[in-house]
């Protein structure tokens, strides 16, 4: 996971699943994520996340 992806969990509290990547980007923007973190979310290969675990796994695959 990149440094930018590493801090993302603090922005994910209260997020309802399933969630689309676009909704995830919006959620992170509204909760103060940095530009680097938003770029990391936009780079995720999955378009829909069914659970927090699925999202965590996708974040771990970031270069």
From TrEMBL:
<dbReference type="InterPro" id="IPR021527">
    <property type="entry name" value="DUF2795"/>
</dbReference>
<dbReference type="Pfam" id="PF11387">
    <property type="entry name" value="DUF2795"/>
</dbReference>
<protein>
    <recommendedName>
        <fullName>DUF2795 domain-containing protein</fullName>
    </recommendedName>
</protein>
């Amino acid at each position: 996971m990149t440094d930018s992806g590493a801090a993302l969990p603090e922005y994910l509290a209260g997020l309802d699943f399933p969630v689309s990547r676009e909704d995830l980007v919006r959620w992170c923007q509204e909760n103060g994520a940095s530009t680097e973190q938003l770029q990391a979310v936009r780079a995720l290969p999955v378009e829909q996340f069914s659970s927090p675990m699925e999202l965590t796994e996708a974040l771990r695959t970031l270069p």
